[in-house]
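Fold in tokens:
===
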Amino acid sequence: MDKLRGYINRVIFIVSSILLTVMVATVAWQVTSRYVFNSPSIFTDELARFLLMWIGMLGTTYAFGSKAHLSMDYLHTFLKADTVKIIKIILPILSIVFMGFVMVWGGTLLTLNTMKQLSPVLYVPMGVVYSILPITGVINIFYFITYITDELAVKGSDR
């Protein structure tokens, strides 16, 4: 599972890096075309917005996959090891339920319902833009499942 998680993280990192580069170039072109050529580009604002959505969602997923997301570890110092282990199993389960309902199910409905709606400038189906929700939702669910299996594999003496 660690190899698969590492591979997925690498793909997310590469895709996010490419999207970030495109977004920076897009915003730089917007500024250049507006202030140097006095003819603002019409597509750059919309493209930068869509790229920012994708980068944000992929970045969050990358943080989950590399276990770099925020957590409140301070409270664990006051709890028994068994209680901490239970919490480290229950929280990913709750996260799986949230990701399943909101991101995967809701994101899929949003994607399907907006597939015929075109963006005003780029004429891209909005469903394509919103498809990042179920994509990252499924990946996050995989990551949370690996958190649970990793936690169940750790013995009490390994803490």
Notes: The radius of gyration is 20 Å. The chain has five helices and no strands.
